[in-house]
Amino acid sequence: MQQYTVTFLPDNIRITVPAGTSLLEAAAWAGVGVKSTCGGQGTCKRCIVRVKDGHVTAEGNSLPATMRAKGYALACRTQVAGQVTVEIPPEARLVEHRVLLRDEGPAAEGKEKEDLLGGRPIRPLCEAVRLRLDPPTLTENASDWHRLRGALRRQRPDEDFAIGLSALQELAEGLRRADWQVKVVLTSFNTTGQVIRVAPADAPGVYGLAVDLGTTTVAAALVDLERGEVLGQGGTYNRQARFGDDIISRIIHADTKEEGLHELRKAALASINEVAADLLAKCRVAPEEVVAAVVAGNTTMSHLFLGLTPKYIRLQPYIPTTAEYPLLRASEVGLNIHPAAPVLVFPSVASYVGGDIVSGTLFTRLGHSDELVLFVDIGTNGEMVLGNREWLMACACSAGPAFEGAGITCGMRAMEGAIERVEIDPATSEVRVKVIGNTRPVGICGSGLIDALAKLRRAGILDRMGNFMPEKGGRRLRRGEEGYEFVLAWKEETGTGKDIVLTEGDVKNLLRSKGAVFAGIRSLLKTLDLPQEAIDKIVIAGGFGNYLNIDNAVEIGLLPDLPREKYRFAGNTSLKGAVQVLLCRDAWEEALEIGRKMTYLELSVGNLFMEEFVSALFLPHTDLELFPSLIGERKGGSNSWPGV
Amino acid sequence: MQQYTVTFLPDNIRITVPAGTSLLEAAAWAGVGVKSTCGGQGTCKRCIVRVKDGHVTAEGNSLPATMRAKGYALACRTQVAGQVTVEIPPEARLVEHRVLLRDEGPAAEGKEKEDLLGGRPIRPLCEAVRLRLDPPTLTENASDWHRLRGALRRQRPDEDFAIGLSALQELAEGLRRADWQVKVVLTSFNTTGQVIRVAPADAPGVYGLAVDLGTTTVAAALVDLERGEVLGQGGTYNRQARFGDDIISRIIHADTKEEGLHELRKAALASINEVAADLLAKCRVAPEEVVAAVVAGNTTMSHLFLGLTPKYIRLQPYIPTTAEYPLLRASEVGLNIHPAAPVLVFPSVASYVGGDIVSGTLFTRLGHSDELVLFVDIGTNGEMVLGNREWLMACACSAGPAFEGAGITCGMRAMEGAIERVEIDPATSEVRVKVIGNTRPVGICGSGLIDALAKLRRAGILDRMGNFMPEKGGRRLRRGEEGYEFVLAWKEETGTGKDIVLTEGDVKNLLRSKGAVFAGIRSLLKTLDLPQEAIDKIVIAGGFGNYLNIDNAVEIGLLPDLPREKYRFAGNTSLKGAVQVLLCRDAWEEALEIGRKMTYLELSVGNLFMEEFVSALFLPHTDLELFPSLIGERKGGSNSWPGV
After folding, report:
1. Total-model pTM
2. Secondary-structure percent of chain B, ordered helix, strand, coil, rounded to 5
């Protein structure tokens, strides 16, 4: 078959592909990130690129004629038919995601360590034992493993010891290279110590990798297990994004495409391995020195990571293959660390309450609290846990990825070029925005969207049902192709040369998302017959949570109207829980307990959720009694909201 | 690089290889079996082929000029330099080995089953449990694994259950395809049942694979674990043979060639997978229905099979990586059966007393005997165990592969065309031979060599020191290039068109081999301060053993001169012990016990073995008192030996 070269601008990356390859696939092969939400169906229109030169064929290129005339094309629906030069516009670029790991604000070294352990003593998943062995002789000719095990038993008489194939394959040379003076890295489950690695006695530390495998981003932390310290953290976007932005489109890809599951598994692994490689290089740690990994992800991500079909997670009655994952080794999973390293995957509670939530619950110590705590994680989905030391109940609502920018005309993830704060002058309807990276804006991310909704409502440009009020919007409110739209930034100010707008459709999408989260919280409370005020503490988790302006989130009816001092930001609790397990194996037992103990509230059973959801599709809600502080403000007619 | 086609006759198989490839390598790539003992060093001269046409270059082709003139060449030292046609003569062809599995003589069905179990009750390594599960609903929405484990626990309240990754990957579809009525295949170690496979309730049997991984041959048996029956047996030669015939040349290959260990591992796997595939096809069993494997091999074979370096097995003080192998899964080992199937590898005792001997000891129930039993396995090496229910002592002597035909001018393995019986008329020195397959002879195998030595000695053609007596040999004894040689078959009678001879050098080789075995037996007895007569029973194992004429073996001083009724042939005890473990998991515990309990006598320590060896380099021995029956016969001057 004829092969052609495709050149991607502005990075000037070239790749040779067979004729007929879509530009989206060519970009994926070339490692050039191009956005795509619909899995290449031609419907999400996020993969718009510009063909600068060369021959392509298009199939169902549904862009307006004016755009097509300028060379714009849907990458997924455009096929290579000759040498081609393609420009990826900023809004279609899948650039590195700002991954929030460290808590914001000053955190003392000492405090951070204490936080990570949740008050537990350090008892790491793996530890090193240093031994001096007698070399074998003709009369003392036991096998290498027998010799090593004997020495281990003399040092720890109460334990037995085992070794797996990959560690055994290294053993003979390892012992002799070390001249029989070795550092043995062990992990213990039950009373059997498993030998992972045999290194020279003076080999450097013992390291573990904590991973938060999110639908959108993958974050990892490298942990020194001997010192109990986080050496470094890093993140990247999940390479699965090219098969669809949200969980459902990935499940469909896994189920309907031949090799789909395999592709998604490989993409998840590639994401983790890449972020781990960067982290290891930065910290000057060799892959074989990393002797344990703990992975937290939602149920679908955990399934895809392990090659388990997610098909029945999507279909009623929503059944995962498993809630608890077997103890695995890096070699069978495919992680590029020591092949014999144990890999623990956090247990799930149900199809839509996964290991990331169990990890977050572990880290935030809900199960130890005398107070009633609500834990809310708003990511691609919205999950929440309510409980205390006696009981835990969780639910998940399909909030959708609107707060991550998906399904929103100019939506984008929280990365460079995203509008993250919006101010609107109620008198003039003029707008001021704050952009991540202080560059020209190319889109708007979740926190910007919440700000925009709150400010538009406050300025009276949006009514309570989410309709635009033409008489209030000034010159920025106009009629677009699909109804009214509000211009947040004029094309002269943006990085794309196009206006950044919020449409009526976008507002409806956002209302559905925020309504789902609020209805989820209400459903938990109603099921337990508890008033909103019974909540003593609300912990907000997720990368998203760090940007969230609580007042604005309450004002649009996303979060309950409770005293602001009850709110806490906990950051990436999924990753932090994984770090905790690396440093304290007792935490793993607790995680298993949490997974088993937590009650799952299936919101699709009965009418409770649906009724709450319909009531929450307003700004902020049909029942204003639920928002006392808001009523007070409104009554006073004040405009003194704590602003941006 | 220039590529050329090599055509191998008589099979007319073609392969394209780069210029410079040796004919031996080309044959290996083409799957054409060519003998080679020295690992391609040009020294064993077993890979002589005939270049019929085309261009080759030769490097150190040490064949006589007369042969070279006829196109004969060492395949390992001859490189492709153009299109070539090569004929593989019968004596250089590596054809299928006659693998002896079934005991000779009539064995009743019932008796065979009892024999295989050694009186134990059937308690197979894996078993099937049939379950009817309730399909999940929105309110009964536990994960698939949780549902299955719950049902298993209800049926067996005292056990816990676990599942590994590969079984988990099949679980969701498996349960639904079976419409929730399943056959669960489990294996139990400790009190945890490991789920291997979930199949529809009406799926056929539960099968296991027993493997004897020999240096020369690989034998396997397919066992129905539910019925306790051997369904079929098969064998092939070990594909590692192309890297050298004996253990030492394979260890050197593994150690000195890049990828050498990997090549040997792959060859062992290919051999097992091929014999298993044939067996499965013959018995109409699908690979995923085979849910357990038990492998018995000598220490080096077990190491190579698992990718463990055998380097230190060869070097003083002869240390294997391990004597006990971890419980493995088929997927990590590379066996083409169910990926989650457990694979048990028999433990070794020492570097040269391996799992095949432990398996044989298990099967022959030495450890249960009140009598003193000597177990002798003469294969590529000679291993022996002496003991009873109270103690077991083993040793290994480097008997060398002479009795397998290696290192003998016209030696070959026991396969079609091999002389297996020899008669010599003492009066005329004329010879009658019996050939395997009743074809024209192409060489002579172990049992034929023992016969030949015994008959040549009896006819006075060989003296006690193994020298030919020119005055006695008649026209068949002549001077060859390297001293005297005796013609067993004239070229007009053979399949090679060349005389089949036994040279003075061959006789010395055979004396060394038989002397080593006898010295090993003597060393065991002397170490334990026991007279030869203390032995109550001698069990002869190995494919070789089945052909052995005891009288002749005693006459040449290979085996001790004890009443013939004390001798037993046990066949392939290595394979039979593996079958026993498949059918009875208690036998596995016993195998581990045997491995730990058996005392290893290292013959290279001290002078004991060497002194015994020197005394045993005669026909039959320096000490004729050890051979009373022989003295009696000699004294009587009778020629009434039980002949062929």
Report:
1. 0.80
2. 35, 25, 35
